[in-house]
Amino acid sequence: MATGILMTLSKLPIGINTFGAIRDNDMTYIDKTPLTWNMVQQPARFFLSRPRRFGKSLLVDTLKELFEGNQALFKGLFIEGKWDWGQSYPVIKFDFAEGVLQSRAPVFAPCYHKYLHIFS
Questions:
Q1: pLDDT bucket at 3, cuts 50 / 70 / 90
Q2: For residue range 51-75, what is the model confidence (pLDDT) as tens digits?
């Protein structure tokens, strides 16, 4: 480090997999929204096959925040000027990270009741 220069490093988001927590707490974030933009522009299905701890949950959470229209989280990022922030979409996110699934009822019931009006 050069003499007389004070460097301030942002916190690293070790173990944090929510986009909002990273952005709200001014943690280090490498802008991957150009890749996200390319994904949402293609009418395709994607299978996320990456090793553990490779950012799959963070990517899914980033997509959730994007489709819910949380513009403030994307301030200064590539996608900020490209996304239609006047439009938001309902997002259903299932998180299986908590352990072994014994029954589907506790997982799907809250989402079913919350979004029943969409399927009616």
A1: low
A2: 777 788 889 999 999 999 999 999 9
Measured in Å, how far apart are the chain's first and last C-alpha atoms?
Answer: 62
Partnered with residue 11 across adjacent β-strands are 27
**pTM, to two decimals:** 0.73
In whole angstroms, what is the distance from residue 99 CA to residue 82 CA? 37
Contact between residue 65 and residue 20 where contact means Cβ atoms under 8 Å apart:
yes
Query: Could you tell me if 37 and 66 are in contact, meaning their C-beta atoms sit under 8 angstroms apart?
Result: no
The band of 37, judged by pLDDT with boundaries at 50, 70 and 90, is very high
Phi, psi for 27 (deg, rounded to 5): -90, 165
* Strand positions, DSSP E, 1-120: none
